[in-house]
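Can't paste images in this forum, so I'm doing it all in text. The chain is below; anyone willing to post the predicted structure tokens underneath?
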Amino acid sequence: MGKRWRKYQVGKYRLGQLLGQAVVCWRDEKGPHRRRLGVHTEIEARAALDTWARNVTLLKERESKTIQDIWDAYKADREKDGKLIANFDYNWKALKPRFGTMEIGAITADVCRDYAAGRDGQGRSASTIWTELTRLRSCLNWAQKRRIISIAPYIWVPTKPDGRKRVMSVDEVLALISACKMPHLKLFVILAITTGGRSGAICQLQWIKIDYEAGTIDLRSTEKINPLTKRTHKGRAIVAMTAEARAALTEAQAGAITDYVIEWNGEPVKKIRKAFAAACDAAGLTGVTPHVLRHSVATWLDEDGIPIERISKLLGHRDPKTTRTIYSKPGVQVLRPAADVIDLRLRGKKAAK
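Text version of the structure:
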């Protein structure tokens, strides 16, 4: 039998020997425990126990972090990468009451399902619930990759819903334009429906990008991206100016105060959502956001037989597949010829009998 080692302990973790191997021993509310350390000499055993105790402490610190702690770090990191975090705040406002004070180990699939059921009971859409839980999953996966937590829990997420299907009719668009009492909002809607541009691109549009002689509107961004971030420019295009857009732009430029096309009270307008929602309410429209105008443009063009490649260029997409998958939503009338073919086949078969 070898020489017994001197007593050595770190916190509640005590060094022991078992069949010539070092073991760590401790007791908690579940009773006594013992784990092999994989070494055989006293010097190695003491170093191994120090490492064991340190790792256990770090693990406990990690697992005791609340989701709020992790979310704050996640948001700060995303912001450093130049990500737009306004939606992060919006998502966290919904997630925080349920998950904010939770520890990592408390999250289960059933907790996520219960959260989804609660949000559904509040009248939130399937896409909203999917986005919120997906954001939570991204946050915890981010924390695991950066070793802030040891293992990210499984975040149950419902099936991703279909993309936006809301397409406005011409009458609805005209009703919306009529409901825009403020001139800058009316100009925004006209430009959105005549260019298919994103809300941000239209709000950032400057007068120097309007070429009346060439009849074009340049929605491309001139903003320089910081190479230390992960920001990218979403695709934008130079589009042809319609007669409706030309008339609206000419009238607006006569009284322009700033360099920006969309301005109000002598200042550029950065966001249009609240004023836009008020106009939709006044026009009796539901389920309409500024982005629905972009979807509607793509659908109208698709329904009128414009090639998807041209629609893609108008919308500033690099890949026509994006246009086809997300934006192009042909209505039932586009499929009417196919229905007629089926009907004729059936009629012909019946006549033959």
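DSSP finds 14 helices and nine strands in the chain. The mean pLDDT is 85.
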